[in-house]
Write a structure and sequence with these properties.
globular; 8% helix; mainly beta; 49% strand; 14-stranded mixed beta sheet
Length: 266
């Protein structure tokens, strides 16, 4: 019998790219709030998802430095299970419920790509970097304190896709007032058979479910963000018209389930 949550399937299942849930995540995050063209958001939304008319094109670009664990002590194998990620969330609605929709996401780890595709995140491979904080005092330590500056970037195929800078000013007392929408994605797998290429076996609108979500040490401040036009990419469609606040925070959660909101292939 062959085993594995994902391919490759093997007798013991140890070679599978992604291990079965539960999945546990901890991260340091940099996020930039901004406003983009609402018509560009509309062009990227799947059927049944509408742009949030009350948001004026509000979006967030996130950068995350992750540590992962499942059931096999993965956090002690950082070469395989530490990774960095960047993604855009745009404010939308589904059946009257306020949501974030994820049209673009980049990551530097193949196992994270496999887990993301299983959920519906459209992950692509890239290089992602962000300023880290360290406990020992130094001009390079980037402490969580007023005046500290952080940078972040995502690049792919030798091209810079986005660059962010933030400067901390104050601690956020109520993170739920800022980060309060569930994330929705489109889970899509095509077929290669010539007579079925326009009939994907999997085409679903899904909602990310997080257990034991914790958002801590949230700081806010001024921000800069650029998303240039790059050949072979379309994230520039969501380039900022106006930039709002920047945020630095810690986040953790676990994943054991996924909610299917709509099955487009049915």
């Amino acid at each position: 019998m062959l085993n594995g949550f994902t391919v490759p399937l093997t007798p013991q299942g140890k070679s599978a790219l992604a291990s079965p849930p539960p999945w546990h995540y901890s991260s340091d995050c940099v996020a930039v709030e901004y406003w983009t063209d609402p018509t560009a958001i509309v062009s990227l939304l799947p059927p049944g998802v509408d742009v949030d008319g009350t948001s004026g094109g509000r979006a967030f670009l996130w950068f995350l430095d992750w540590q992962f664990n499942a059931s096999n002590d993965e956090l002690t194998d950082p070469a395989r299970y530490q990774y960095r990620e960047a993604f855009v969330l745009v404010e939308a609605t589904f059946e009257g419920v306020a949501i974030n929709y994820c049209p673009f996401i980049f990551v530097d780890n193949d196992a994270a790509i496999a887990r993301g595709w299983a959920q519906g995140f459209p992950k692509k491979y890239a290089s992602v970097f962000q300023t880290r904080s360290f406990a020992a005092p130094s001009a390079a330590a980037a402490p969580l304190a007023s005046g500290s500056r952080f940078g972040a970037s995502v690049s792919a195929h030798g091209e810079r896709l986005a660059t962010a800078r933030i400067q901390l000013e104050e601690r956020v007392k109520n993170p739920a007032a800022v980060f309060n929408r569930p994330t929705v994605m489109r889970r899509y797998f095509p077929q290669l058979a010539a007579d079925r290429q326009n009939k994907p076996p999997v085409d679903e609108l899904t909602m990310s479910l997080t257990d034991n979500l914790a958002i801590v040490d949230v700081w806010a401040g001024s921000a800069e963000l650029t998303i240039p036009q790059v050949n072979g990419e379309e994230m520039h469609l969501l380039a900022p018209r106006r930039v709002g606040r920047g945020y630095r925070l810690g986040m953790s959660y676990s994943v054991t389930d996924l909610r299917i909101l709509k099955n487009y292939a049915a």
